[in-house]
Amino acid sequence: MLTKKAILFIVDGLGGRPTDLDGETCLEAAETPNLDRISSGGINGLLHTVRRGVKPGSDVAHLSILSYDPQEGYTGRGVFEALGYGMETEKGCIYFRTNFATVDEKNVVEDRRAGRIEEGQEELEEAINSIELEDVDFRFKATNQHRGALELKGEGLSPHITDTDPHESGEKIKSCEPADSSEEARRTADIVNEFTKKARGVMKNLELNRRREDDGKYPANCLLVRGASQMMDVESLKEKFGVESACVGAGPLYLGVAKQVGMETRKPEGATGDFDSDLISKAEAAVDELENKDFVFIHVKGADNAGHDHDADRKKKFLEKVDEAVGHLLENLDWERTHMVFTGDHTTPIDYGNHTAEPVPIVYYGPKVRTDSVEEIGERPCAEGGLGHMEGLDVLPVLFNFNDWTDKYGS
Ligand SMILES: [Zn+2]
Fold first, then answer.
1. Half-sphere exposure of 66 (CA within 13 A, CB side)
2. Are residues 218 and 237 in the same domain?
3. For the segment 2-11, what is each residue's pLDDT rounded down to a tens digit?
4. Residue 12 CA, ligand 1 centroid: distance in Å
5. How many angstroms does the Cα of residue 346 sit away from the middle of ligand 1?
């Protein structure tokens, strides 16, 4: 263990636009005394998590911030969800996110989430795992509600295939198609189509679904797959920087990305990955992890969810909860030997309700940081800061430089 400590705090969907709330962004409008304290005592700037002008998905944004170039081996989101759900993953296997869904006789999806089914996950999992496929092994794991993960294992498989999930109710299930001209992609697409057909066969006759139909509920009679992907073949954070690290989070995607890069993961009591998450519990868990780790990454999700729901008031309130969690870190860590970077993974404006390409505020705080003249946090105050504009891949090297954890380039 090293003597110094480092923290990365990511607020999912942190950034906003001045149209969020009467001329201010949610972050600018929120009461944030602790974040203002780190801004005024730190160095500020704007972060393009992938590249200027790119609207990042949360998965690639997080990979970039953790110093992994998504262009080197990122194939899709499914593998991170599988890891985040606690599935053991292997190189060469193909992973998918899955949904239990309801389809009619004509293969039209009536509900993409089978009425957000809360029962029968074990029965469904067992039925699906009883299928046999030619030439390939597979494992299916049901998690919560309609969600789950699927692994295909065998020789000559490819992640370059399309989703069967039409992504909207009222549309037909899509046939899985190869997304490149390789034989592996053709073969994998054929396997997915065979699997989908056989899964429907065993799901439609389940007692659970008969009961649900009698009760007027959506039966879980189909499994939709999306996000075909493979493990990335990358060095761990320990191999790259020599740091022992942990992630404190709740959403399976984020826990999965952290596992992919070799971090331990912890979902503390009360952490939900949504607006109601107990962020003090997360801050306490981070303080606890830093007892025997060098570097901790804290992820919070609620601001992004509020952005997707076009709910400015909720986003502002969530950012005030984030501020309290940062206050807990300020009170409970040794700031003589700790450096923190506070930022977001992308902008999620209230009116747009999805990710956009504007950069997000970024602040470094700690004893060795050259301060600037910024006095409060916000998209526009941070634009005036001493860091200027940064890209995601630089976030950790800049943080670890303050702790003297990076090597000299050249002699
Ligand atoms: Zn995100």
1. 33
2. no
3. 789 999 999 9
4. 4
5. 6
d(CA 50, CA 347): 12
How many domains in the chain? 2
Q: How far is the CA of 306 from the centre of ligand 1 (A)?
A: 12
- Dist. CA 266–CA 66, nearest whole Å: 17
Q: Is the pTM of this model over 0.90?
A: yes
**CA 60 / ligand 1 centre spacing (Å):** 9
What is the C-alpha separation between 299 and 392, in angstroms, rounded?
16
Residues 255 and 304 in one domain: yes
Give 147 Cα–ligand 1 centroid separation in angstroms.
19
Q: Does residue 182 sit within a domain?
A: yes
| DSSP run (H or E) holding 274 | none
How does pLDDT run across 52-97, given as a tens digit for each residue? 999 999 999 999 999 999 999 999 999 999 999 999 999 999 999 9
Q: How far is the CA of 94 from the centre of ligand 1 (A)?
A: 23
Strand pairing report for 295-300 and 5-11: parallel
Which domain, by its residues, includes 87? 81-229
Distance 318 CA to ligand 1 centre (A): 15
Residues 223 and 88 in one domain: yes
Tell me, yes or no, whether 99 and 215 share the same domain: yes
| Residues measured by CB to lie within 5 Å of ligand 1, the ion | 12, 58, 304, 345
238 and 356 inside one domain: yes
Q: Is residue 87 domain-shared with residue 187, that is, in the same domain? A: yes
